[in-house]
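LAB NOTEBOOK - FOLDING QUEUE
OPERATOR: T.R.
BATCH SIZE: 2
PURPOSE: Compare the predicted structure-token outputs for two unrelated chains run back to back under identical settings.
PRIORITY: normal
REVIEWER: second-year student, initials M.K.

ITEM 1
FIELD SEQUENCE / FIELD STRUCTURE:
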Amino acid sequence: MDVYLPIANLSVNGLIIVLLGGATGFLSGMFGVGGGFLTTPLLIFYGIPPTVAAASAASQVTGASVSGAVYHARRKGIDYQMGAMMIAGGIVGTGIGAFLFRLLQALGQIDVAISILYVVILAGVGIKMAIEAVPELLADRFERLKRAPSKRRHHPLFTSLPGRYRFYRSGLYISPLAPMLVGMAVGTLTMLMGIGGGFLLVPLMLYGLGMSAAVVVGTSLFQILFTTIATTMMHALTTNAVDIVLAALLLLGSVSGAQIGAKFASAAKPELLRVVLAVIVLLVALFMAAGLTYRPREIFTVAPL
């Protein structure tokens, strides 16, 4: 079933795009990530221009996040106060990201910049998550690897921030500036890379802010929902790279996929989920790095209007 994408200016197999949306929706509900970190690279591999892939994937992540966030809200797995602080920072971050996107686009380097960002960030996050999660998973099988559970600690960068506020659902007493800074960083990357930011947000919430694991996934999806809405609007107003047909096809699969993923997440061990996510992140980084080393079949980019 061939479908024409007006902004990307090419025809694609609609069924493949829908299945891709279902796969990323499944990841959204299962790991608390928007799925954009996988959607954008796969769209690029399929032949979609990177700028269109990044802008359209952000709108698809919104739909996947709605479905997953509703499920976790019913289970009372969202810290709305923490999420609100992250959303405030995320909206500011989208403005910063829009400026950088237009600058790199004008310089003709946006496609390369998107690929390099994926390789560097995904590799770093994947390695960090694997180092943290693998020993915990193996400890269940090997007695000698077992250790006393460590107390959740805030990163020194966040403990030095002024002002304190109690986030009851997360079990934290930290400065509201900490989640705002996290949201700002993720918002900037969402604008540049078309990601929901969950693959980066979840580790930051766990290991940086020290949030309770019980509310990390739901709060991540809650923040991603509003940040990607702001990102899609910003792209539509500034870069004109959102392909509504492509986004609609992705949404068809992602909404149902997120519900299935959320059900799997509630039944699986958290340590196993983190190891699986780390492996997926590292594989995507490896493929993106390989893509930077060979000449593409078609050399083109989407120029600013």
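ITEM 2
FIELD SEQUENCE / FIELD STRUCTURE:
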Amino acid sequence: MSKFVYSSPRKYIQGSGVINELGKYVAELGCSALVVADSIVWEIVHSAVKQSLDVAEVSFQYEVFNGESSASEIHRLSELARSYKTTTVIGLGGGKTLDTVKAIADELKQPVIIVPTVASTDAPCSALSVIYTDEGVFEKYRFYTKNPDLVLVDTAICVNAPVRLFASGIADGLATYIEAAAVKRSHSLSMVEGSPTVAAMAIAEACEKTLLTWGKSAYESVASKVVTPAVEAVVEANTLLSGLGFENAGLAGAHAIHNGFTAISGDIHHLTHGEKVAYGTLTQLVLEQRPDSEIAEYIRFYRSIKMPTTMKEMHLEGVAWADLVKIGNQANNEGDTLRNLDSTLSGEDVANALLAVDAISRSLCKIN
């Protein structure tokens, strides 16, 4: 008999200026906090964070995030938190910062508060982290017994981040329903080890519809650094809908191929998570033998928000066949999710699909 599992954060709050309410919500969970952010993010938010925590009488200790969600960084910050005797953990920033903070909270068995400063990934709401080596190579997924206690998203902060990161969040979110449908089709398990629920599939579908309907106008608004109803809808899709969708309905080819890219060196690692997921999504569509018109629709949309759709834009032009197969083999390793798409795929199948995406996209560029 199938087991259906649905998991979500305790509380999700989104809106322009909500960073000023952070302390009120943190005080519900603890009276002292380890605050983790990289130095750039901290420069942007420290004044509002400090004032909000001070008003709520929550003491805190700030520590800088060193850039990689690795076992050594998690251990370093966990030991510091123990020495400070803090009772909660707050993470501010992008996906790798937030994944690290979730792991710290798990190590300490403490509440975790997630404050994304960019709407660039679906990491904030999930009960898992993507763990990399110190060199940035994908290592494993780390799973937790609960989702974050609070996810607080200030859209006024998010629109001031580079528009490229916002577009990357849209690309990451667009993988949600495509991967969820593959998981359901193959009778595979979600990231919470259950069959996809009706709720999860509905959320994943709503994520895709929201992004295709308002993604371009929201992108243009963020380019102008203004918060509009379209921006609010897309931030919610990038963060909440995509997070709930991927976790409860599952991952398949797009994210596995993203992880496959970590197997090779080069300028591809200057791309964002979402940019690599975008190409992984197109590659999954090719592997699924989706209609030409459908693949073209996605390519045109990605290009409208300046996401990469060719090997040249992925910094893979001229890469040796053996390296493309290496990407495919890494995507197909036992700990990843390509098998949720098709358990018979080989590294060579993925390599061929990577090249096919490039050929289709370049053909469309000539037509347009």
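REVIEWER COMMENT (ITEM 2): The first strand starts at residue 12 and ends at 15.
FOLLOW-UP: none requested
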